[in-house]
Every structure is written in C-alpha cells, then in structure tokens.
Amino acid sequence: MTHYVFYFLSFLAILSGLMVVFSKNPIHSVLYLVITFFAIAGHYILLNAQFLAVVHIVVYAGAIMVLFLYVLMLLNLNVSAEPVKKTWVKVAGVISGGMLLLTLVATFGKAETQPLIQKDATIGVTANLGKILFNEFALPFEISSVLLLGAMVGAIMLSKKEVNK
Amino acid sequence: METLQAIPLNHYILLSAALFSIGVMGVLLRRNAIIIFMCIELMLNAVNLLMVAFSAHHGDGKGQVFVFFIMAVAAAEVAVGLSILIMIHRNTNTTDIGFLNKLKF
Question: What count of other Cβ atoms lies within 10 Å of the Cβ of residue B1?
Fold first, then answer.
C-alpha cells in the first residue's frame, strides 16, 4: 500500500516539476509547482513528519505561491511574452541537466540500498520537534527571526516607490 | 514502536536527484526570472525531502528542524527576490534575464 502511494507521489512530483519548466504560461507554471509541493507534503506524511507536512503546505503552497501569483498578476506577466532562447542554448541546458542527473544517480544510486526503517515513528510530531528546536537550536531560531525581520524591511524598502526626489 | 516502510532509501535519493536536476534544467532553460525563482524553490524542496527521509531513517529529529530553518530562509529569500524583481520590472519594463547583461564584460 505504502509502495503505491510512494510511487504515485513521486511520479506526480516529477511530472509536474517537468511541467513547471516546460509550460509556456507562467501562471500554469505556478499551479504545477503547487501540485509538486502537495506531492512533497504527501511524502512528508509517508515519512511520519506530520508537523513538517503541515508547515510545508502552509508556507509553500499558502504563502510563497500566493506571493508568486500576486507578483505575476501585478506585473501583468500572465501572457506568454517570453522571448525564446536559441536552440543550441536549449539543447545545452537539457544536456547539462541530464548529465547532472546521470552523475547524481551514478554516484548515489546504489549508496543506501536497505529499506527505510523508522526506529522511532514519533520524531516528526510537534512536541518532539519543539523540544529539539527550543533546546539545541534556540540560538539559530532567534537568528532566523532577525533574518525574517531583515527580509521584511528589505522587501518594503526595495519595492517602495521613491516619492521625494 | 517500529514502523517498517519497505521503500528502499535510494529511491528517495533518486527522486531528490531527479527533482534537483529538473530545477537546474529550468534555471538553464528559461529566461523569465520568476520561473527561475520557482526552479530554485524546486531545488530547495528536493534537498528538504532528502533531509526528511534521512532524518526518519536515522531516527533523529535534528534533520527535520533543519528543514524548518531552510523553509524560513526560503521565505525570506522569496520576499526579497520578488521585490528586487518588481524593482527591475519598474525600471526596465521586463523580467527577461537576457536584458540584464550590463554587468558582463
């Protein structure tokens, strides 16, 4: 049962990932990326990482993708007015991506052949992750809050129109 | 409590490698800067998935906490990057990266 769900979700993720790259309309790319993110959230649930699955859906499919769609519609880019690259550039891109995939598969494909055994199925629940986050990773947590504050200030500064000039 | 998933661990590695390569291919193929951003998100998610898989395999929650931090950094990166993109679009009226070649030799 888990097998079929895993392979279905993998197929869905890879197919919609390809559609992100190859669809002409940017809006369609965003929607296919949302499908990819839901497939990856399904993988997290299969791996007993329920907290991360929910956070993944909320942050990626909820916040980041809405930001992308908002910018696309704000800039009025929902028409496919993208100039095409030269053919040899496209061929070179596909070949280098394929060679990267080949190298990764040849290097890591046989690395860990034993089945994934979860010794402790409760590591992904919120209570456990919260204990780790606030005991060992308290300082990085605070630093990431400063990072988010800086990103917020930077985003507002950058996208503000300069009026008094 | 022991749950046995019969999926080999290297299938997770293969899936992540495929998603990462699709992201790299998208960065190389497309010229729209927003789609390049989306492909970067795809690469980040491939790495996240692999990290969660190994975290579950080793029974260590630190990998999942690290994924949480990566999500925070990705959110910050998208906010700043998209505002830079709006700025570029306001000044040049395009998001084509082939247009932004003033810094090259």
Answer: 7
Letter for the amino acid at A70? Y
pLDDT digits (tens, 9 = 90+) for B26-46: 999 888 888 999 999 999 999
Higher pLDDT, A163 or B12: B12
Residue A20 within any structural domain of the chain: yes
Q: Looking at the domain assignment, is residue A21 inside a domain? A: yes
Contact A67 B85 (CB under 8 A): no
Mean pLDDT within B90-94: 80
A92 vs B contacts (CB less than 8 Å)? 28
Q: State which residues form the domain around A58.
A: 1-82
Mean pLDDT, chain B, as a whole number? Answer: 86
ipTM of the complex, rounded to two decimals: 0.89
- Neighboring chain B residues of A52 at a CB cutoff of 8 Å: 52, 64, 67-68
Residue A94 belongs to some domain of the structure: no
Tokens of B39: 């492909």
pLDDT above 80: residue B94: no
Tally of domains within chain A: 2
Domains of chain B in sequence order: 10-96 (1.10.287.3510)
The DSSP-derived string for A12-76 is HHHHHHHHHHH-SSHHHHHHHHHHHHHHHHHHHHHTT-HHHHHHHIIIIIIIIHHHHHHHHHHTT
**Cα distance from A48 to chain B (closest Cα, Å)?**
8
Chain B hits for A111, Cβ within 8 Å: 10, 13
Smallest Cα distance from A148 to chain B, Å: 6
Q: B99 and chain A: CB distance < 8 Å anywhere?
A: no
Question: Residue A21 is nearest to which of B26, B56, B90, comparing CB atoms?
Answer: B26
Last residue of a domain, one of A30, A62, A82: A82
pLDDT score recorded for residue A83: 63
Structural domain contains residue A128? yes
SS3 label, residue B6: strand
